[in-house]
């Protein structure tokens, strides 16, 4: 039987749905406070839900009863500075608990990391799986939590765990709604006026799920894979979304110094209101950076062909407009 952790999240729900559509009956773990996502409601007959926080090793062990494969999509994500240390601690300890139990029970795992845990390439070169984040200089809490969680999986692999790691770029898809990456679409729709010079990778959520399932079915272990469809300039992405939404595209370049002012202003507003800032320092600086990713390793491993980002953009826009 298959267990999907984090199945109430954007990727986890799509992965669970894809597994069910392939004829699997699956088990999904959730926290007590989590709500079952709408896209999984029609498949209640094929889904067994269990309450098991990854920080609760005893509950997690019960959830793993009879399981032979685990897809780990669970993660604590927050932009709040106050959540930095709890996020790192939760993601790392939770992953360690799952790694130890899977190793003990001989369960194969596909672990979801992020390109936030992948290092930088030299200017003009593509970022590959061989680039590693420098933990001594990294300050972004999410990146640190993903890197250190990955290290727990590598520790498990060294101890005999059968596992592979995926590092998706920015995941987009209609089921995100206006949360997560869906905020990009909603922001453009509401009249975004600025764009930056940055470049980043994007990939359809269903493609990430399909890659994870394909990797699970191989005999590959002890490898990490960047999951990326295309590298896009933010300006190009915003213009394409604006065209789909039939709104005016951003016209003004936001320079790095303007982004510095923006995140500081957002931080002040967040401090005064007690809410998460609309823009944090890491995101503001990343928006002007060029990070282009090489997807040749995953293509060679499973012969995968990615959906064009333009198709996904159209799907997301149709969903939000309707």
Number of contiguous helices: 11
Structural class: alpha/beta
Mean pLDDT: 88
Radius of gyration (CA) equals 19 Å
CATH topology of the domain at 2-176 and 202-230 and 292-307: Rossmann fold
Q: Strand sequence of the main sheet, in spatial order?
A: 3-2-1-4-5-6-10
Shape: globular
Low confidence ranges: none
Biggest sheet overview: 7 strands, parallel
Q: What string gives the helices and strands in order?
A: EHEEHEHEHEEHEEHEEHEHHHH
User: Would you state the CATH class of the domain at 2-176 and 202-230 and 292-307?
Assistant: Alpha Beta
Instruction: Provide the helix percentage.
Output: 40-55%
In the CATH classification, which architecture of the domain at 2-176 and 202-230 and 292-307 applies?
A: 3-Layer(aba) Sandwich
Report the β-strand fraction as a percent range. 15-25%
What's the count of strands?
Answer: 12
- What's the N-to-C terminus distance? 37 Å
Protein name: NAD-dependent epimerase/dehydratase family protein
Domain NAD-dependent epimerase/dehydratase: 2-227
Pfam families: Epimerase
Organism: Mucilaginibacter lutimaris
């Amino acid at each position: 039987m298959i267990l999907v952790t984090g199945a109430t999240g954007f990727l986890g729900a799509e992965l669970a749905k894809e597994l069910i559509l392939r004829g699997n009956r699956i088990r999904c773990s959730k926290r007590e406070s989590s709500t079952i996502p709408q896209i999984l409601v029609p498949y209640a007959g094929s889904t067994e839900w269990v309450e098991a926080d990854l920080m609760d090793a005893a509950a997690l062990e019960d959830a793993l009863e009879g399981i032979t494969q685990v897809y780990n999509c669970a993660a604590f994500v927050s932009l709040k500075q106050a959540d930095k240390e709890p996020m790192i601690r939760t993601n790392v300890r939770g992953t360690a608990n799952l790694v130890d139990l899977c190793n003990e029970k001989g369960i194969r795992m596909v672990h979801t990391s992020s390109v936030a845990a992948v290092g930088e390439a030299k200017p003009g070169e593509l970022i590959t799986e061989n680039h590693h984040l420098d933990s001594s200089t990294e300050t972004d809490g999410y990146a640190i939590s993903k890197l250190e969680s990955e290290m727990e999986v590598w520790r498990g692999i060294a101890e005999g765990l059968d596992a592979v790691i995926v590092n998706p770029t920015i995941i987009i898809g209609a089921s995100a709604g206006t949360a997560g990456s869906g905020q990009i679409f909603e922001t453009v729709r509401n009249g975004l006026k600025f764009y930056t010079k940055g470049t980043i990778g994007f990939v359809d959520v269903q493609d990430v799920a399909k890659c994870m399932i394909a990797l699970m079915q191989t005999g590959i272990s002890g490898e990490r894979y960047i999951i990326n469809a295309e590298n896009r300039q933010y300006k190009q992405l915003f213009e394409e979304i604006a065209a789909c939404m039939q709104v005016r595209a951003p016209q003004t370049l936001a320079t790095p110094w303007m982004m510095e002012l923006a995140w500081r202003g957002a931080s002040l507003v967040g401090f005064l209101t007690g809410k998460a800032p609309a823009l944090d320092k890491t995101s503001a600086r990343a928006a002007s950076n060029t990070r282009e990713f090489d997807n040749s390793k995953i293509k060679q491993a499973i012969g995968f062909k990615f959906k064009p980002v333009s198709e996904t953009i159209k799907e997301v826009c149709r969903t939000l407009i309707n």
